[in-house]
């Protein structure tokens, strides 16, 4: 009998994001600004009618997943594009948004996994200024 090894489980982006928001809830005593962290609901699959309505309402492809509208140092706020640990790629639209937000004075990070995002947020919040 042949031993078939199963590929290790890689959490989805949704699971990674849920873990990050649980972490943020636990850390909000130390960092009350985390209460302002929010998800930009631009992703996901939609039917044509819903996609058309969202586009008309201003939804734009590539906007980073998370925003922390808290200034630190020279930055107006923090945007994070959160990816799963393996099996995802960054789209051209996402790259363009990250570049443009950086030009506008935002701190922007691409994070693989919730732990990398939590570290990025902690480093950002502990920045002087």
Notable traits:
alpha+beta, 4 strands, 129 residues, single chain, 4-stranded mixed sheet
Walkthrough of the structure:
The protein has 129 residues and is an alpha+beta fold. Helices cover 37% and strands 13% of the residues. It contains 4 helices and 4 strands, in the order αβαββαβα. It has helices at 13-27, 48-56, 92-103, 114-125; strands spanning 38-39, 66-68, 78-83, 107-112. A 4-stranded mixed beta sheet has the order 1-2-3-4, sandwiched between helices. Helix 3 links the parallel strand 3 (78-83) and strand 4 (107-112). The chain is globular, with a radius of gyration of 17 Å.
List the helices and strands and how they pair.
Blueprint: H1 13-27, E1 38-39, H2 48-56, E2 66-68, E3 78-83, H3 92-103, E4 107-112, H4 114-125
Parallel strand pairs: 3-4
Antiparallel strand pairs: 1-2, 2-3
Please tally the β strands and state the result: 4
**Percent in helix:** 25-40%
- What is the end-to-end distance? 63 Å
Order of helices and strands: HEHEEHEH
Q: Tell me about the biggest sheet? A: 4 strands, mixed
Estimate the global geometry from the Cα principal axes: globular
Structural class: alpha+beta
Overall average pLDDT: 91
What share of the residues does DSSP label as strand, in percent? 5-15%
Rounded to the nearest angstrom, the radius of gyration is 17 Å
Brief summary:
With 129 residues, the protein is an alpha+beta fold.
